[in-house]
Amino acid sequence: MSPDTFGNIGDNPTLLMSYVQDYISAFRSRQLGRLNELKRYYKGDNNIKYRKSDRDKHRADNRISSDWGKYVATFMQGFILGNPVQYQNEDDALIEKIETFGSQNNEDYHNGLIETDLSIYGRAYELVYIGPDGKEHLAKLQPEQTFVVYDGTIESNSLFGVRFYQVAYSQTNVKGFVEIYTPDNVFYFEGDESITSMSFIREEPLFLGAVPINEYSNNEERMGDYEAVLDIIDAYDLSQSELANFQQDMNDAYLTIIGNPITGTNKSEYQTDSDGNIILDTNGDPIPTDNSEGDVLEQMLKARMLILDNNNDPNGPNPNAFYLKKEYDSAGAEAYKKRLVADILRFTFTPDTNDENFAGTQSGEAMKYKLMGNDNLAKTKQRLLIKGFMRRLRLLGNSWGIKNSVSTATKIDSLYDKLNQTTIKFTPNIPQNDEERISQLKQLFGVISDETLFTLLSSFTGVDADDEMKRLQEQKEANMMAVADATYANSGIDQETPEQPSDDEE
What element of type H or E holds 489? Predict the structure, then answer.
């Protein structure tokens, strides 16, 4: 949509809704199916469960689904945001405000949810809003129900954001809802489940200075971390399922008997006619007499022993009994599965932690080489996360500026500039050799500033560099006071009662 078009309809909720309905229809037809499939794979509900099978109904038909989607997404989320992001700015008051906001909104957990959605869908959305308490809040929005419309300029400025969803009050009463967020207002609509007939409900003003829906991208193509290997995951699922089918079919293998299974049968044990012939039932089986113990074959099977002959026919079959089964190339099947696993991990840049060479005894440099592919991918993801985090801070800055009654453009620009000077630091969550790391930091003592050194040590101590420096200063002052007290005590001078002058001095 062009900025001019939006400028003509942005203040007209009903007219804007007519455009939004077209966007929702296009979103459902072109994108929703893909997003739902990616979520299914994250939940382990892979396509193997819906595979059409022409197997005989008497044969095994296992459909084993592997949860590779969650494995890849969880690893990436933990690698990038397992340790909370840190905000750095020369303005201590601004950092304190950012950290207070993060603490009130459980920002660490929220950021983890954003990264998980990025791994699954390739996109993620959050809503920055001012709650009834007058404070700024964060809410994660579902990618299956959210999108943002941008203009056609080179800057791709966001014009408005849309959130649509359905609520089932009963099996027959399902309603659809649409929320349209513009830079100045949010419009609420209610209608039928298909969102084809909607009614305007109300509008509320916004005080954030921009579209409050913040969109994150996993990469330029907005692809999920495991989206490119869905077909390899399907092949792995099929391999696992066929192995299970083979094992089950082998356990239920058919017994083949060559020869006479009723050898040794005493005719008196079965009902006979007047000519002495054994009477057969409708299935062609001999009918035992009341005192018979049943079919000889059944008795042999119970005894786990088969006694067969060929009815004394020299041209008859040689008696034999065996199970019908096929051979399984276990070595080839295992090699095939390992190749599939290697491809999944390679193309998602996920390290193989089950690799025998991936051991804790390796040096840090060796580990870096194994994690290089994942680290390169993480750098791209971090840059895009920083882009989203900075837009979040600017939205918060707009709200803080209004609350502080900022009336001059100079002050607004000053706050905006200060926010843009904020540095966001990521600390990868990977195993480290603490002894090697501490030894390296000891060598830096006296080479770099104490503040920088304490910043590096914060990953071990869990204490912020500024707090650590304050603690160290307080410790030095306490030690100096202790030394002073000890000096006075050893001098023999009474510190509490001043020495009284003698009579001669008086």
Answer: helix 465-491
Max CA distance (Å), the chain: 158
Distance CA 441, CA 465 (A): 14
The closest alpha carbon to 230, from 381, 76, 47, belongs to 47
Element (H, E) at 392: helix 372-403
Closest CA to 381 of 5, 55, 75, 27: 75
Bridge-based pairing of strands 255-258 and 123-130 is unpaired
* 125 or 473, greater pLDDT: 125
Q: First-to-last CA distance in the chain?
A: 100
Please name which of 361, 126, 345, 133 lies closest in space to residue 232, comparing C-alpha atoms.
345
d(Cα 341, Cα 333) in Å, to the nearest integer?
12
Task: Return d(Cα 349, Cα 343) in angstroms, integer.
Answer: 10
Q: Measuring CA to CA, which residue among 161, 92, 97, 88 is closest to residue 135?
A: 97
CB atoms within 10 A of CB 111: 24
- Per-residue pLDDT reduced to its tens digit, 234-279: 999 999 988 888 877 777 666 777 777 665 455 556 777 877 788 8
Element (H, E) at 9: helix 3-9
- Backbone φ, ψ for residue 86 (5° rounding): -120, 135
Are the C-beta atoms of residues 87 and 424 closer than 8 Å to each other?
yes
Give per-residue pLDDT as tens, 3-17. Answer: 767 776 778 888 999
Place of tokens 């060929």: 310
Contacts of 16 (CB under 8 A, 6+ apart): 9, 10, 160, 180, 187
Tokens of 200: 């305007």
**Contact 214/392 with Cβ under 8 angstroms?**
yes
What is the identity of the amino acid at 378?
A
Q: Could you tell me if 49 and 65 are in contact, meaning their C-beta atoms sit under 8 angstroms apart?
A: yes
43 phi/psi in degrees, rounded to 5 = -90, 5
